[in-house]
Amino acid sequence: MKVPKQMKRLCPKCKKHTPHKVSQAKRKGLNATHHQTWGSRKRQSLRNRGVGIGMGNRGRFSRKAITKFKMTGKKLTKKTDFRYECGECKYVSVQATGMRLKKVEIQ
After folding, report:
1. Of 28, 29, 24, nearest to 84 (Cα)?
2. Domain 2-106, CATH 3.40.50.2300 — does that match?
């Protein structure tokens, strides 16, 4: 995908449309940003509230996992992580959600 070096976007700090300089940062994985997975953080918060403590598996693990239907292997693409720097106030905003792309060309 070809991305322009400069594009006009809404700056969240200036609250107006200004030219932004586009740059790409390396996408960090879950382990780099959070030391725990989402499930273990959720479980910990429930435990702190006093919910989910007791016997049994709450009907979640009644069957074994079917390994042949599981997604295995590495993904072929990485998600993009664009940074947009405002031309006026130099505020850097981060892309909300990344797209899965094999090749990104900033021109």
Report:
1. 24
2. no
Task: Please provide the DSSP assignment of 18-86 as one string.
Answer: EEEEEEE-PPP-HHHH-SS-HHHHHHHHHHHHT-S-SSS-TTS-SS---GGGS--S--S-EE--EEEEE
Residue 39 has phi, psi (to 5 degrees) of -65, -40
**Are residues 41 and 30 in contact, defined by beta-carbon separation less than 8 angstroms?**
no
Q: Whole-prediction pTM value?
A: 0.62
Nearest to 7 by CA among 20, 24, 23, 25: 20
- Domain extents in the chain: 2-106
Tokens 């599981």 -> residue: 70
Q: What is the DSSP letter of 89?
A: T
pLDDT by 10-residue block (mean), the chain, 107 residues: 94 95 83 74 79 65 66 82 94 90 91
DSSP annotation of 88 = T
